Amino acid sequence: MARVKRAVNAHKKRRVILERAEGYRGQRSRLYRKAKEQVTHSLVYSYRDRRARKGDFRRLWIQRINAASRQNGLTYNRFIQGLALAGIEVDRRILAELAVNEPATFAALVESAKSALPADTSAPKSAA
Fold it and tell me: Tens digit of pLDDT for each residue in 55-75?
């Protein structure tokens, strides 16, 4: 039986890790053991941050919608409530896109949300 020689596979394995570690600082891009550790950690970071990115974008959309709806005289909370009562189902990504690129369309949505809202019951009552 032929003897198993592992040099080719070992070199390939090391080369792949060092290629993935390209751009890291210092020993992390040059020494195999440090590079392997950093590459593994980087994969963990990227997995975690792919999920975190979704929340980051949602927060950004909400800020944009809030700013645009306040310019039209309605808070974000009341705007979303009004859209739900009006039966308008548009997600936050599209609303943010409209707020930035098509302010007139967004203003029309705000007006339809305003008309669907009941009178503000939490407002202080005027003295009669």
Answer: 999 999 999 999 999 999 999
What's the rounded Cα separation, in Å, for the pair 18 and 6?
18
Taking the C-alpha atoms of residue 88 and residue 96, their distance in angstroms, rounded to an integer, is 15
What CATH class has 53-116? mainly alpha
pTM of the model: 0.78
Task: Spell out the alpha helix ranges (H) of 72-102.
Answer: 76-86, 92-101
Locate the domains of the chain by residue range: 11-49, 53-116
Per-residue H/E/C for the chain: CCCCCCHHHHHHHHHHHHHHCCCCCHHHHCCHHHHHHHHHHHHHHHHHHHHHHHHHHHHHHHHHHHHHHHHCCCCHHHHHHHHHHHCCCCCHHHHHHHHHHCHHHHHHHHHHHHHHCCCCCCCCCCCC
Phi, psi of 3 (to 5 degrees): -75, 140
Query: In whole angstroms, what is the distance from residue 105 CA to residue 98 CA?
Result: 7
